[in-house]
Design a protein that fits this description.
Blueprint lengths: L3 H10 L3 H11 L7 H15 L5 H13 L6 H10 L2
Helix pairs in contact: 2-3, 3-4
Length: 85
């Protein structure tokens, strides 16, 4: 990874950009109607961000995506996490 921008992001956030790119690639063909897949994605994002997602919040996110058909985007997740506090 030679790009200084990504190195700066890693330095400021502590998040490995290779992990982010790997996650993004895995999302391209993911089945967001499958609860197991969505839970796996939530757990992976949690691990990459080094932030624990409480089970009740995980359940709300899964329900929102699988049952309610909401799109999985960072704004939706961010709003849910902020409301969970």
């Amino acid at each position: 990874m030679d790009n200084q921008f990504f190195k700066n992001v890693e330095k400021k956030t502590g998040v490995n950009m290779n992990d982010v790119f790997s996650l993004a690639n895995s999302l391209q063909n993911a089945n967001f109607k499958d609860e197991k897949t969505v839970r796996g994605i939530i757990q992976r994002v949690s691990q990459i961000a080094n932030k624990k997602v409480p089970k009740d919040l995980e359940n709300k996110i899964v329900q929102s995506i699988v049952q309610d058909g909401k799109k999985l985007d960072f704004n939706t997740i961010s709003k849910m996490m902020n409301n969970g506090k």
